[in-house]
C-alpha cells in the first residue's frame, strides 16, 4: 500500500529545494521534505482511513543521474473492531537521464517495509516529456501492474495543478469489489494542487476518485529543505 514514483505527483510538487555538496571529482545534491497531511492517499485510496499522516523524505542524487533515498509515513487501518496505528519506512534508488531539454527517462526500485511486519518491492519505468509524465509500475509482492499518466499545469504565483489518471491492469490482486465480483481492472483519477506559501513551505490540496472506492480529499503542508 504505497505512493509515488519519484518523477510523479507529490514528490515532484514538494521537493523543490536542495543543498549541493561538492566532492573532489563529483557533485551530490541532497533534498528533502517533511509533510503534515490530513490524509495519506495512494492511487485513489486512503491508506490512513481518511485520518492525518506525517511523512518525510530524504534523497541524495549524483550529477550522473543516480540517486538513493528513504521515506517515512504513518498510517492506520481497521482490523476487526480495532484501529491499528502503524508506520512505513521505504528505501529507494534509481537513475534518471535527461535525453534532451524536453525528454527524460527514469528507472526506480523501491522497497516498502511496514512496522507491523512485511515488505514488498516495486519497480518503475518513467518517461517525461515537457509537462507530461508516463510511468509503469510493477509490484513484485502481488505481481501486479499499475500504469499512470500525470500532466502538470503551471498556474499563478508559481503554483501548479497536476492532473493524474491511473489504471490497475491486475486489479484482482487487490480484490477490488465490483458488485460482488472481483474486478479485473480498476482506474483512478486525481487533481493535485501545490501553492508556495513561503520559500520553503508549500500548501498542498488533493481530490481523488477510485472506481471501486469513495472519493477522498487531502490538505497538507510541506516543508522543503
Automatic annotation (TrEMBL):
Keywords: Signal. NCBIfam families: gcw_chp (TIGR02001). Pfam families: Gcw_chp. InterPro entries: CHP02001. Residues 1-23 form the signal peptide. This is Porin. It comes from Shewanella canadensis.
Amino acid at each position: 500500500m504505497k505512493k509515488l514514483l519519484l518523477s510523479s505527483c507529490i514528490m515532484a510538487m514538494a521537493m523543490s529545494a536542495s543543498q549541493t555538496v561538492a566532492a573532489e571529482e563529483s557533485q551530490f545534491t541532497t533534498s528533502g521534505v517533511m509533510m503534515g497531511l490530513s490524509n495519506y492517499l495512494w492511487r485513489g485510496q486512503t491508506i490512513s482511513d481518511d485520518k492525518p499522516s506525517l511523512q518525510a523524505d530524504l534523497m541524495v542524487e549524483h550529477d550522473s543521474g543516480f540517486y538513493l533515498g528513504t521515506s517515512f509515513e504513518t498510517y492506520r487501518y481497521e482490523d476487526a473492531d480495532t484501529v491499528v496505528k502503524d508506520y512505513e519506512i521505504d528505501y529507494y534508488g534509481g537513475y534518471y537521464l535527461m535525453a534532451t531539454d524536453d525528454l527524460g527517462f527514469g528507472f526506480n526500485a523501491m522497497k516498502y517495509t511496514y512496522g507491523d511486519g512485511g515488505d514488498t518491492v516495486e519497480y518503475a519505468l518513467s518517461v517525461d516529456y515537457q509537462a507530461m509524465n508516463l510511468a509503469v509500475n510493477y509490484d513484485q509482492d502481488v505481481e501486479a501492474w499499475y500504469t499512470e499518466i500525470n500532466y502538470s499545469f503551471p498556474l499563478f504565483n508559481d503554483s501548479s495543478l497536476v492532473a493524474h489518471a491511473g489504471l490497475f491492469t491486475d486489479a484482482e490482486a487487490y480484490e477490488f469489489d465490483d458488485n460482488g465480483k472481483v474486478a479485473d481492472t480498476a482506474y483512478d483519477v486525481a487533481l493535485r494542487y501545490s501553492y508556495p506559501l513561503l520559500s520553503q513551505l508549500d500548501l498542498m490540496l488533493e481530490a481523488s476518485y477510485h472506481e471501486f472506492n469513495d472519493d477522498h480529499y487531502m490538505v497538507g503542508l510541506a516543508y522543503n529543505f
